């Protein structure tokens, strides 16, 4: 982990915790009870950009986005801008999966959410118009529409229950109740109050919604139970000079805990019981101080608060202090020990919005939506309140070393039984001296990340390989992924500035750690393409989940342009081809008698008949049944077929392929398609082998991108005619299966009530 040095004047609580240990001196260690106490340490890890943000018409600068909600699975989020558009993103690939917009004269006024029960999406535009659509829908003007009688504030979707609709007047309805009667009258629960924040939870299998309101500087909290319909109202204690900036809450054991972040940098905790079954009169909530981050001279502005676990909170905001320049930062605090765990400055500014889903922070940074991965792990109390390392002077995150209190105690303290004689004391000192020497030798032999990065800049390739092997074999780091990213970035930067330097073995070794992604080292594949290192490109395509479509097409173009002869002897992983390609070269391979499966036979293609010949005579393999490329090139093309892509972004780059490359790739896809159709499972064995769906998708994409070229080329006519005949034969075979579908279903419905023994003859009548 890395920790920023903290100014005690601005963070007095942290100065007290850290100072108590420093005042005792390094020789005075905590007691044995303190040493056994462990706390959860938090750290900021990988950072990447999810998407760019475009300012909508009428939206002021710094307003951010309208909302960011979780999608159907943990790797997808639904972003709604302050205009007309809702976009579904896949976080791991940083790619949009779908985008939906309302008309020009309409505006989305409520963030779109996903209905976890049905997989549909829900949004509200122009305050009262409800829209519901699915993934396959394109035009929101043609999807389900319902006009309500009151303005909607938010829609909250919680797993295992129906979405809840919160109106600006404070009323709450389930989505089912609204769809049953959209024109029902909606009552006003609040008067002259403005809703500032809301959230929904599941407690004892019942939905609970909480929202806060503000009126003339007074803040109120409403807790709404849906089944049964019970509403509780509370009032927050009023502060003279400060006001709440952000709210967050959680439930546990029928207790609702509300955390409030105030402008004075304090986080207060308020408790509300969910066991009350009868509405009561308005109650005043007393708050208790949970965390104090800044001194009284500093004011917190534009802040957001998020709960990470029972001991950690995250704060995004700007500290405005008169003698200092206001800086926005994201910080993680330990509420148990009142310590700052880590922080990150955001120089391009934020909108003050912070979302936290699946150990990832989502926030606006400048003109982009940034994702920052965080994690909480167990560490010693000493690292929580002891030495906090400054990372401002270093361009990378350093790995903190943990203090082993037991080892230090054994070295510094002598056993009372060992002091009974001078000989025993001498032997004890000799043992301790030997142990210290071993520890010192181990520290000299251990290679740090900083030393390795420094050596990468000017050491020889052989020395770097030895040091990297030693570093990876001895490394015990908490932030392994980020550290490997720094190392490979240093290697790639030297490759770009020094053309003769190319540590191929080091790059392969780092990729095989499976701790990298394209976003961590975006220049790596460009260098590999420049060096035509097909093995490295194959590894990247197989292990990187976020390769851009432009780079994927560049790899495809490079693979297709390399001759099979030049690939002979190349170190390429052939696991994806050994199930359908004979690695031993042989021009004329005689095929043994085979059983035709899945309705495929060469005779079927020739005479276009649906009569299936069960057994074929030995024959010489036709050229169409031979793979048009060698095993090495086939393995490289299979890596392309396995890569993730978005159709919208891939099609323009596919058009860069030449006509000959398109024909060659189509012939290989045809070969794979025929081979897949010969099998009952229609899929090749193995994790790296292409599937029938991937083959069909790429074939369709290639034809879409080069349809005119393929139709006009004379050498492509035979290929298209062969594909057409094969697909038509498959369609006819499926139609024959459909004819007996009813009979097969009838056989499945018949239940045998008697045991006829080992052998019997039974007459079944199918009507």
TrEMBL record:
Superkingdom in the source lineage: Eukaryota
SUPFAM superfamilies: WD40 repeat-like
Molecular function terms, GO-annotated: RNA binding
Keywords: Activator, Nucleus, rRNA processing, Transcription, Transcription regulation
InterPro entries cross-referenced by the UniProt entry: NOL11, Nol11_C, NOL11_N, WD40_repeat_dom_sf
Residues covered by the Nucleolar protein 11 N-terminal domain: 41-375
UniProt record, GO biological process: maturation of SSU-rRNA
Location relative to the cell: Nucleus, Nucleolus
Residue ranges constituting the Nucleolar protein 11 C-terminal domain according to the UniProt record: 450-766
Transcription regulation found in the keyword field: yes
Main subcellular localisation: nucleus
GO cellular component, as recorded: nucleolus
Name recorded for this polypeptide: Nucleolar protein 11
Annotated organism of origin: Chelydra serpentina
């Amino acid at each position: 982990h890395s920790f920023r040095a903290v100014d005690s004047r601005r963070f007095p609580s942290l100065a007290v915790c850290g100072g108590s240990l420093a005042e005792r001196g390094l020789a005075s260690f905590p007691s044995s009870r303190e040493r056994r106490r462990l706390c959860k340490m938090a750290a900021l890890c990988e950072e990447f950009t999810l998407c760019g943000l475009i300012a909508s018409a009428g939206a002021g600068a710094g307003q951010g986005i309208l909302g960011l909600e979780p999608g159907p699975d943990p790797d997808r989020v639904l972003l709604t801008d302050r205009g007309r558009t809702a976009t579904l993103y896949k976080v791991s690939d940083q790619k949009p999966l779908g985008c939906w917009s309302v008309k020009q004269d309409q505006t989305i006024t409520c963030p779109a959410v996903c209905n976890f029960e049905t997989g549909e999406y829900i949004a509200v535009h122009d305050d009262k118009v409800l829209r519901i659509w699915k993934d396959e829908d394109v035009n929101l003007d043609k999807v389900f529409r319902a006009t309500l009688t009151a303005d909607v504030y938010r829609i909250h979707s919680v797993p295992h229950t129906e979405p809840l609709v919160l109106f600006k007047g404070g009323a709450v309805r389930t989505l089912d109740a609204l769809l049953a009667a959209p024109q029902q009258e909606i009552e006003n629960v609040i008067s002259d109050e403005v809703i500032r924040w809301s959230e929904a939870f599941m407690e004892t299998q019942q939905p609970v919604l909480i929202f806060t309101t503000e009126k003339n500087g007074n803040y109120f909290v409403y807790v709404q139970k849906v089944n049964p319909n019970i509403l509780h109202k509370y009032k927050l204690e009023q502060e003279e000079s400060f006001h709440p900036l952000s709210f967050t809450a959680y439930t546990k054991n029928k207790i609702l805990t509300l955390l409030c972040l105030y402008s004075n940098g304090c986080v207060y905790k308020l408790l509300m019981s969910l066991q009350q079954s009868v509405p009561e009169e308005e109650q005043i909530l007393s708050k208790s101080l949970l965390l104090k981050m800044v001194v009284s001279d500093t004011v917190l502005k534009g802040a957001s608060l998020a709960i990470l676990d029972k001991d950690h909170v995250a704060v995004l905001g700007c500290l405005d202090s008169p003698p200092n320049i206001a800086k926005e930062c994201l910080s993680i605090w330990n509420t148990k020990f009142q310590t700052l765990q880590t922080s990150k400055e955001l120089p391009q500014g934020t909108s003050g919005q912070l979302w936290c889903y699946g150990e990832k922070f989502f926030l606006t940074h400048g003109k982009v939506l940034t994702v920052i991965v965080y994690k909480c792990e167990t560490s010693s109390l000493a690292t929580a309140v002891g030495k906090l390392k400054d990372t401002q002077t270093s361009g990378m995150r350093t790995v903190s070393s943990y203090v082993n209190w037991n080892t230090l105690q054994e070295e510094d303290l002598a056993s009372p039984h060992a002091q009974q004689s001078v000989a025993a004391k001498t032997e004890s000192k000799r043992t301790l001296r030997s142990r210290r020497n071993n520890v010192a030798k181990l520290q000299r032999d251990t290679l740090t990340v900083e030393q390795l990065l420094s050596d990468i800049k000017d050491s020889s390739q052989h020395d770097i390989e030895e040091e990297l092997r030693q570093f990876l074999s001895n490394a015990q780091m908490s932030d392994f992924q980020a550290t490997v990213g720094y190392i490979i970035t240093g290697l790639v930067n030297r490759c770009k500035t020094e053309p003769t330097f190319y540590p191929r073995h080091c790059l392969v070794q780092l990729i095989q750690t499976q701790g990298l992604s394209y976003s961590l080292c975006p220049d790596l594949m460009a260098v590999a393409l420049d060096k035509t290192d097909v093995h490295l490109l194959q590894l990247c395509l197989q292990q990187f989940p976020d390769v851009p479509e432009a780079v994927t097409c560049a790899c495809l173009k490079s693979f297709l342009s390399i001759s099979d002869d030049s690939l002979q002897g190349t170190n390429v992983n052939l696991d994806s081809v050994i199930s359908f390609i004979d690695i031993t070269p042989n021009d004329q391979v005689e095929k043994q008698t085979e059983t035709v499966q899945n309705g495929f036979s060469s005779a079927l293609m020739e005479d276009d008949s649906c009569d299936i010949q069960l057994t074929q005579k030995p024959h010489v393999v036709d050229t169409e049944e031979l793979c048009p490329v060698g095993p090495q090139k086939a393995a490289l093309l299979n890596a392309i077929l396995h890569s993730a892509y978005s159709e919208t972004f891939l099609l323009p780059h596919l058009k860069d392929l030449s006509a000959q490359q398109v024909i060659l790739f189509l012939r290989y896809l045809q070969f794979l398609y025929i081979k897949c159709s010969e099998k009952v499972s229609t899929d090749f064995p193995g994790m790296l082998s292409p599937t029938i769906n991937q083959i069909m998708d790429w074939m369709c994409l290639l034809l879409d991108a080069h349809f005119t070229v393929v139709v006009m080329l004379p050498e492509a006519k035979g290929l298209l005619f062969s594909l057409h005949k094969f697909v038509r034969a498959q369609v006819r075979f499926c139609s024959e299966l459909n004819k007996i579908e009813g009979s097969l279903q009838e056989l499945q419905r018949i239940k045998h009530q008697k045991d006829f023994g080992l052998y019997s003859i039974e007459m079944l009548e199918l009507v």
